[in-house]
Amino acid sequence: MHVLYVRVSTSEQTSDHQLEQATKAGFPIDEVVTDHGTSGVSTRLADREGGKRLLHMLREGDTLVVRWLDRLGRNYQDVTDTLRGLLRKGVTVKTVINGMVFDARPKTAMESAVRDALIGFMAAQAEAQAQATKEAQRAGIAHHKVASPEKFKGRKPTFTREQLEQVVALAEAGQGQSAIAKATGVNRNAVIRITQNPAKAEAALERWGS
User: Fold this and answer.
1) Is the pLDDT score of 131 beyond 90?
2) If residue 60 lies in a helix (H) or strand (E), which one and from where to where?
3) pLDDT bucket at 40, cuts 50 / 70 / 90
4) pLDDT class for 4, splitting at 50, 70, 90?
5) DSSP state of 66
6) Of 36, 112, 124, 40, whose CA–CA distance to 77 is shortest?
7) Alpha carbon of 52 to those of 33, 72, 92, 191: distances in Å?
8) For residue 106, is it left (φ>0), alpha (ψ between -120 and 50) or beta?
């Protein structure tokens, strides 16, 4: 049986796209297992809903197909442990990109050595790529915090500190939200947010220097 495993984040390819790629590459896919919106860095394959199903499903003689090894994960230890566990189980792993084959039954000692070296190299590459992406995101956020600080302050409060204090006082006195809005001139939705979490409303004012 050929099983395609797909891990899709909100910013990456869809599961349908990855299935189409695998089919066009000539893989006869019998089953597709998908994890949606799951991190490959912080969540091990065995801890994902789809990953658990995948590992339970695969049997000796099966072939696992992935677009690239980073679909299994972006943590070096997890990817290498997963691959070696599958190979010991008799499951061959193939990638759609570049047509890599990690044969569960290599014919020679040399083939086995090359396979194991590739596992380590490609898993390390996936983790390094994830770290580089994370660093780039941090650098981008730091830049924009300086260039456009208002974007990181959240929504600007529609009330003043005096109005905040009035809303809190009236709420503690047992006044209803509509009555508080009428008495203070604060939008009713804002009144609701303030009464639900006064500390958060206070923090918003602090961020905006109010």
Assistant:
1) no
2) none
3) low
4) very high
5) E
6) 124
7) 10, 12, 18, 45
8) beta
* Distance in angstroms (rounded) separating the CA atoms of residues 26 and 99: 10
Number of other CB atoms surrounding residue 48 within 10 Å:
22
Token pair recorded at residue 181 = 């809005």
Q: What does DSSP say about strands 101-102 and 92-95: parallel, antiparallel, or unpaired?
A: antiparallel
Q: Which residue has the tokens 């409060």?
A: 157
Determine the Cα–Cα distance for residues 168 and 103; give it in Å rounded to an integer: 67
**Residue of 10, 41, 14 whose CA lies nearest to 133:** 41
pTM summary value: 0.55
| Distance of alpha carbon 180 from alpha carbon 164, whole angstroms | 11
The fourth-level CATH superfamily of domain 2-130 is Resolvase, N-terminal catalytic domain (3.40.50.1390)
pLDDT in tens, 161-188: 889 888 888 887 788 889 899 888 998 9
Helix (H, G, I), strand (E, B) or coil at 49: helix
Kindly list the distances between the CA atom of residue 186 and the CA atoms of 66, 174, 197, 210, in Å, as whole numbers in the listed order: 54, 17, 15, 16
Residue 5 · residue 33 · CB < 8 Å: yes
Cα angle 83, 86, 92 (rounded to 5 degrees) comes to 90
Mean pLDDT confidence for 29-37 = 90
The rounded distance, in Å, linking the Cα atoms of 207 and 210 is 8
